[in-house]
Amino acid sequence: MKLDTATRTGLRLAGVTLRLGDGDDTIKALDAVSLTVAPGELVAVVGPSGAGKSSLLALAGGLTVPDEGSVTVDGNDLAAMNPAARTAYRREHIGFVFQNGNLIPALTAIDQLRLIHHLNRRRTGAQDAAQWLAEVGMAGKAHRRPHQLSGGERQRIGIARTLIGGPSLLLADEPTAALDRARSHEVVELLARETKRAAVASVMVTHDTDVLQHCDRVVEMVDGKLSG
Amino acid sequence: MFLALRELRFARSRFALMGAVVALIAVLMVLLSGLSSGLVNDGVSGLRRMPVTAFGFAEGTRVDGAFSRSVVDARQVEAWRGQPGVEAAEPFGNMLVNAHSGAGAPIDLALFGVRPGSFLDPTPASGSRLGSADGLVVSSTLLDAGLRLGDTVTIDRLGVKLTVIGATADQRTFGHVDVAYLPLDTWRRIHSGADGEATAVAIKARNGATLDLAAGDAAARTTSLTLAGAYATSPGYTAETSTLTLIQVFLYAISALVVGAFFTVWTIHRRHELAVLRAIGASRAYLLRDGLAQALLILLAACAAGVLAGLGMGALVAGGDVPFTLEPPAVLTAAGLLIALGLLGAATAIVRIATVNPLAALGAQR
Which helix (H) or strand (E) holds A156? Predict the structure, then answer.
């Protein structure tokens, strides 16, 4: 659970534009969006469906590249990397928390975490994974598979899976979409706590205004433009 | 193989079902391989075990049934003896006859007429070599069928009586009929051939020498076939081997398709999971390697189980009336091909992994 955070500068989107579609059907999913998220800061992005929130996450996570502008994580320009280098960078420096956890059905809770070490060819394996499970309050369910866990538990595992890789940037896509009110608070509290503790720059896309109190900052996205 | 092994454990019933199909195909492959080798042995083991490089048949003889159509004379044998690279050339007689044992049991025989003391003269594992005019050295399979050394064999209609004086160590058959060697002169008497006549010229090349068959044919007025080429002269040999080969080819294709279809469905089923894996940083190469390793593990396990079951069933069949011979190289080749083609089928399905877009993990599409 060692964290090297000294060189982190966080996420910076500068004048980012993303167009979707072809020809006359082209729309601007993101229109000159600029956003900076510092290490240890949890920023919530809210807005109606189709506003471009998921596109923002996709760009910040290097899943796609902008048509204009730049996306940098700790000063590294994601668009300047080739796809293989971007995948490797994502593996080592960016973590995703998905809706419903998006855990791998065949893996137990502890193996979900060990998978990240395996992908990164680290040998610290089981012990580190057990510590992270304990950190998110899931030590007693290490050998359960996703279908044996509740929605909140799945999200906790998802957060631990993201943090075990020691990312600089954490991107959460509607992490409370399938949770009740109490579980939603627990999960976002956990996200906020780990964001501070691990000095991660975190962006959470959500429709759930009830959990915004745990965030450091809230920005609103409407029609591909950011405000707030 | 971190993911591959855990998925195998998690979805074991699905993988077991697919593995069972491959294992059954492997059982069939082993049985077909044994049947194929058995039929080949039954058809041409008598020829295969002759120390012959080529046979010279009468000029223009058709390959199909050449041993029953061809007649050569002593001049043709002499002409072959004079060819470069030829160590020895001998007249060889081959005919199928009906006979009866002393006990009155009917026996079909492929009579191989050879000159005693020549390179064609077989070395018996039991009894004595050819020498006396009425002596027969028979295939070991005839002893298995109940014939004994010292027994008398009477050729039907001609009434020629021959005595079993020796037996070979192994199976020697031609056209599914047991071979019996006898002196060429006796063979000619039974065949009603003129003095000096035989079925073909058996040619043996010097060590390392390459025979110029065309030149030999021109000089001896023969049509020659290499030893392997002469297998096709055995009655039914080409039809049998091509039928079994066709069945085997179909089984290989079915195996590749079954494995390919399974992994196509499996990959489509995992599409969202694969998108998540790509999003969290798994490279395409990692996922392709993992998928192929998974396919290889199933194929290896299923083939091993199938081959073992096939060998067990084969052991029950072998030794009976069915021509069945299990030859390790043939079984290993069949298993190897099954694995290789199954892997090819899996690879064509698994390659779809490369097209999975990690954006799908977010539900956002560009």
Answer: helix A151-163
Alpha helices in chain B, H assignment, sequence order = 2-10, 12-48, 66-69, 74-81, 140-144, 184-191, 213-220, 237-269, 271-279, 284-317, 328-350
Cβ contact, residue pair A111, B363, below 8 Å: no
Cβ atoms of residues B179 and B46 within 8 Å:
yes
Chain B segment 248-277 residues within 8 A of A by beta carbon are 272-273, 276-277
B21–chain A nearest CA distance, Å = 23
This prediction's pTM: 0.77
Give the one of B282, B361, B366 whose C-beta lies nearest to A119's C-beta: B282
H-state helical runs in A30-180: 53-60, 83-93, 109-119, 125-135, 151-163
| Side chain identity, residue B169 | A
Amino acid at position A188, single letter: V
Q: Which residues of A touch B362 (CB under 8 A)?
A: 54, 57-58, 63, 96, 98, 173
Beta strands in chain A (DSSP E): 11-20, 27-37, 42-46, 68-73, 76-77, 94-97, 169-173, 201-205, 217-222, 225-227
* pLDDT tens profile B176-222: 899 999 999 999 999 976 678 999 999 999 988 889 999 999 999 99
Contact B280 A95 (CB under 8 A): yes
User: B223-264: per-residue pLDDT in tens?
Assistant: 999 999 999 988 888 888 888 889 888 888 888 888 888 888
- Suggest the residue from A49, A96, A144 to mutate for an interface test with chain B (most B CBs closer than 10 A): A96
Report how far residue A17's alpha carbon sits from residue A27's, in angstroms, rounded to the nearest whole number: 10
Q: Is B353 on the interface with A (CB under 8 A)?
A: no
Query: Does A100 lie at the interface with B, CB-CB under 8 angstroms?
Result: no
Give CA–CA dist B173/A148, Å, rounded: 66
Respond yes or no on whether ipTM tops 0.85.
yes
